[in-house]
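Thread title: Can someone regenerate the structure for this chain?

I was given the following input by a collaborator and told the matching structure tokens would be attached. They weren't. Posting the sequence so someone can regenerate them.
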Amino acid sequence: MEATALICTAEQKFSLETFPIPEIGASEILVETLYSGVSVGTEFAVIRHKLDWGPFPICTGYQAVGIVREAGADVDRFQTGDKIYYRKNYMPMQLGEQKINTCSGTHASHAIMDSSAEVEKLPGEVDEATGSMFVLPSVGYNAVNMAGVGLGDVTIFHGAGMIGLGALVAARLRGAITIAIDLDERRLALAREMGAAFTVNSSDEDVMARVQAIHPGGADVVFESTGIPACLDTAFALCRLHGKFVFLGNYGNAPISFHFLVPHVKQLTAFFPCNDGLKPCREAVLRNMATGAIPWQKTISHTVPYTDSPGLYSDINHNRMADLVSAVIKWA
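Best answer:
Regenerated them for you:
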């Protein structure tokens, strides 16, 4: 048997390559991928060398849904035919003498992982494409949990991309008052569909004045989710005295700077969430997807067959997809 995977070179060239599938170990499972979710922010930060996930060539992707096709002799958590969601593919990949970096490697037709790794059964009520995007709302859930968002808290999401929307949904489910800020009206429309109580278009509104009109003094918690260092100063100013500030975006490898006095005078408490909160956050997200409380399917603007995935990645990398919200790759 052979597996097919989406590979990126250091020169940002994308191709589909095939590899032999090895025998699995006694504690491992072999999975046939149904869908893998695209993370436009993190993956393309790696592809563009803003984040370092190790050497190229590389198989990116860190979220997928598939079906167990084979289970090792010692596996008791899963059986053939189970649908699962997972974060990492441990299958070795090599082109001639060149090893492929599979730091996560879920953009592949098959995956091998230890049955005790980051893998769980997919709830039956969650469709496979939506489930394959589970990491992004889980990142938001983790950030909201870290910041201790509570009932009635006024929360701002500075940037209504996928990570910001994930945090917004989690805050709404905790009973917070949610304000989404973005310069893209389509993202703001999606934020409203996700339950934002207020939206502010920063391209044509006075953001500070609008926030003061909604809640004089500023927000209890501000989530800066653009990942753009130049946006930090604007976001700090939206916090109330003794408020909380969450560095939700990924600002890359390079040093960042901001004006010290605003967060200093406001005496803010800062949070630096990382990753997706692991099993508790993932399970919470999937439960809420299953009930419809997180209508994450509304965020998927593009579904492409795996044969078109190199073109998809090239188009995203060259900013040729103005209508993109998020995308999934269909493998089977």
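The first strand starts at residue 2 and ends at 8.
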